Amino acid sequence: MDSQHLHEKIKEVEAWRRLAQAAEGESLLHHIGLSLYRLQGWPWVALAEVAKGQVHILLLSEAGSPKAVPSYTLEDAPCRMLYPAGEHADFMLFSNNMRRFPQWGLLKQLPVRSYLAQRLSDTRDHRHYHLIALHNNLVEEQNLPKTLVATAARRMAVEIRQKAEHRELARLQQITQHPALALAYVNDRQQLEWASPGLSQLLGSPLTALLHQPVSRLFPMVTPANLAHSRQQPVQLNQICTLADGQRQSLEIAIHSMTDGFLLSLVAPHRGGTLIGEPQPQQLTGRLEQELARLQRKGEVSALLFVDFSGPEADPLIEDQLERVLSWGAEQLRGVLRKEDFVSRLGNRLVVLTACFDHHGEVPRNQLTAIAAKVDTRLSLGVPMEGVAVCHSLRIRLITSWDSDIDEVLDPAHATPWQPQSQPTPLKILS
Length: 431
Fold this sequence. Notes:
InterPro entries: Rev_trsase/Diguanyl_cyclase
Radius of gyration: 35 Å
CATH topology of the largest domain: Beta-Lactamase
Distance between the termini: 79 Å
Shape: elongated
Largest sheet: 7 strands, antiparallel
Order of helices and strands: HHEEEEEEEHEEHHHHEEEHEHEEHEHEE
């Protein structure tokens, strides 16, 4: 091996050694620039970003030192061939005929004669970058440092990707720390592995007391069956919980499946047409007063539907079972009723007020019977809870402009028991 060839090999080893050194950001680009300069005398290396038809030079290294250059139009530059419309061109571009680009803004600053560029891929920040090497002499294609530039481009892509991931993680940490967001992660052993400060504030419980608890102990409606069902599609539940202020309120729980667990998000239900929660006679009474006033003005008809639940042979359910069944029942009613219908809990039963009951000339009781049939069908699906037999019964009460006594209207004794066409069978609460 002659001395000239040995010298070239030593320069190549030195260039790769320098490129392999630990560096990031601007220092990494200067390492790349110095490597190319020492290897073949490439004076300039730049990292460029393309946005809205402009090329922005983020960093430019001149033999390992920073240099400022302006932005320029993509259409006038050689790198336009790296960005064909609708495609991601992941290849290296070389040109040693700068006369093809007379309007290229960089030529006004640097005496460029050879151009080599590699587009960066998989940066994960939805932006477009390429690495440029520029020479002030003509370089033959067979002498291009293609492997070195390709390796440098991959390393720059990793650098940008890591920064994007760090920014994304920082944003995620800010989001999950927000007190308005009540979130929890349930592992595949159905234990609470992580909870947000928002959940801790909502429930008035320190995070240390929530973590590693079986999720069904904290939220009984989040059963193994519901978790399994979320693998097919997200699950929406209602769970009555004791909040930090000591009040018991029905919360909406959304379950989303993840690779090795489940994400739970909890929010208070929206105040509006459908209201679910603990006994709220004042809100139900207020809504009913408005409805009676409307009926007296327009002479129309509305109705109440009373829904009762019981155990086998009409035995009452224990308190915890009743809470879970009422939450489940309220959720099912949402699926068959109109958004303007009002649902509330009254004592140990659910009550539905069919606001603006529209009978279109039909006998109102026929219309209400059809609604009751839909409710009965939905409640017959079965409660997702441990194996207990539960029955439901329905009563209907028409409301007209002649009604004025709210207590009488809300008395189930004045409602008519509704029976389906065939005798119902007890619901089996699924495990």
